[in-house]
Design goal:
This protein is α/β, with parallel strands linked by helices. 33% of the residues lie in helices and 19% in strands.
Length: 278
Amino acid sequence: MRIFIAGATGAIGRRLVPLLLTEGHQVTALTRGSGGTVGGGVTTVVGDVYDGARLREVVAGARPDVVMHQLTDLASRDFAANSRIRREGTRNLVDAALAAGVRRVVSQSIAWAYEPGSTPAVESTPLDLHAPDATRRATVEAVATLEAITAEAPEWVLLRYGMLYGPDTWYTKGALMADLATTGNLPTGPDITSFLHIDDATTAAAAALTWPTGPVNVVDNTPTPATTWAPAFAQSVGISLDVPIETNAVRTPWARGASNAYARSLGWSPAHPTSFTS
């Protein structure tokens, strides 16, 4: 297949490109730097996801079978910027794909935008669009916008990733969550999170080239409470967690985790099946 990737230099993208090449695909990667053909059969094209006209030009020139959206804007921990890329960046990218006659769009979404519940969310669970907290509501609204725009393509897959951990993520030594652990601000209560190793996110993205249209929870096998993962994570990055584990704290209603049963039925399973153990 001919694949156009936006976000090829991100934590997932930089792993996904060589995997796609190994599988025999032709890859065109969007970059803000200099364009051209680089080693291994990757063609880079210069463009900005916020420049709709230029984006339509480079996507049309690539003649892709699939457009893959792996864009985020979290390097500076700017959640407003990340919401913007979900809304405006997705709009421009999908418009460019549709204008070029691309049938399939695969987009990165998240698995913690579901409404409250007591069991792991499945793909049909509604998103938490009426969350009382304004910050969460803004995040969910941006995710819903990304998903709705992606679904305008004739064929589409939404990769609802769990919380990414592993190299180049926030869950590594010197990164955001390690900083929080150092300052005693790491969550330690009963809130439940579905994690996902960065390499498992990559294999799912490649598999999504042929998955049926629809959303897919791409998460670890077992949603895990912070009472379990927080001390294990802190130990893994060499930090002593000198705060009490809040075993009797009230769980945030939407912090419920997600089920990967559907992804497993499609033939995907995590190579790193347990994110954190106590």
